[in-house]
Amino acid sequence: MGRERGRGMAVIAGLIPPMLALLGPLSLRAGRLGWLTPLCALPAGALMCWIWRRAAGRSLSRLLEESFDLWAGRGVQLLYLLWGLWLMSVAARRYVRRLLITAPGENVRWLYLGAALLLVLWLSRGEGVILLRTGRLLFGALTAAVILGAALSLPALKWENLWPPDPADWTGLGAGALTVAGLAGWGIFGLCLPGEERERPWGWTALGCGLFAGLLAVTLGTFGPALTGRMEEPFLLLLEGAAAPGVFRRGEAALASVLTLGDFMLLALLLRGCACLWRGLFPGRAGRGVWLVAGAAFWWAGAHPVAGARGEPLLLWGGALFGIGLPTLAVLTEAGRKALGKEGISCVKKGPEEADVAEEEAGEKSYGKNEKKC
């Protein structure tokens, strides 16, 4: 049987919550031109697509193992594991905060976290096929909800909030594009999902950037850059007060319930990536160890409901490092080793027996070539 398809859908479904969390910071950095930052980040997206193509269906753990030496590869895997656990705590904190905005009550915080932990443990079990199929379903539900929410807010959009830009907005495009590129730090764990050897991630990257640009345009056009930057969940407030008789009374509550599916997908994606890295680091202790570290990440999110001041810079630079920097280094290192192997150059000295075997193999190859010529 062939491998399951739809890894791009699953990754985009999981990236929708981090996209929504960047609406405020991007409006502060790029002002009225904030909606252009996803398009300016397309070169970084193209680089990430190249990394995924070079991975050729391999998981993140396997890519790191085959690119670096044994100890260096394990060290990088440990860094990715810690990064994934920290992202899991950030995503769990945002998930609870969004629910508490629409349904206040501090006593239910741990109930929300416990239910999410059990669900993502169930989704990420096995070989990842269940998570992949779930991602395909959630992709359709989330994109439909986001597009519907944006369409309902179009009558309130004011074009003067998008154009003409202030001179300072042009200088903020670079910082905004770097912020968008930091999303690669979340999406890199999609390599731990089962995928095809010959994937075409270019279309999914363009779709994700286009969707993000549309969300920014609608939000900035409705509230303006200054007000959007001060809001905690600006996209939810687009439907504040909206109602559909017989369907829902509060538009923001209905939208938040659908966006919770994206939180579940993101948490399951991160847990799947951490489990893959854990098995690479501790082959004989896979199983309950992953549950314990995932539970610790959720506990941290509940015990520290307010993010620290260093959280946003760490997300920015950590996302660029773990999403683009280290994967690019791994792919280039692997390509360099293959090139050196083809040229027969090696820095490790061979023993007498290995040299004899190499000479015999070279003699057999030349003998076979001579036979073909005859």
Give the key terms.
374 residues; disordered C terminus; single chain; 18 helices; mainly alpha; 73% helix
Describe the model:
- With 374 residues, the chain is mainly α.
- The protein has a single domain (7-373), classed as Hydantoin permease.
- The chain contains 18 helices and no strands.
- It has helices spanning 7-21, 23-30, 37-40, 42-55, 60-67, 70-102, 109-123, 129-152, 167-171, 173-181, 184-187, 201-223, 225-230, 234-237, 251-281, 288-303, 311-343, 352-373.
- It is globular.
- Mean pLDDT is 77; it is low at 241-248 and 342-374.
User: Helix coverage percent of residues?
Assistant: over 70%
Number of helices: 18
Measure the end-to-end span: 42 Å
Shape: globular
SSE order in H/E notation? HHHHHHHHHHHHHHHHHH
Short description:
This protein is an all-alpha fold and 374 residues long. The chain contains 18 helices and no strands.
Task: Give the SSE map.
Layout: H1 7-21, H2 23-30, H3 37-40, H4 42-55, H5 60-67, H6 70-102, H7 109-123, H8 129-152, H9 167-171, H10 173-181, H11 184-187, H12 201-223, H13 225-230, H14 234-237, H15 251-281, H16 288-303, H17 311-343, H18 352-373
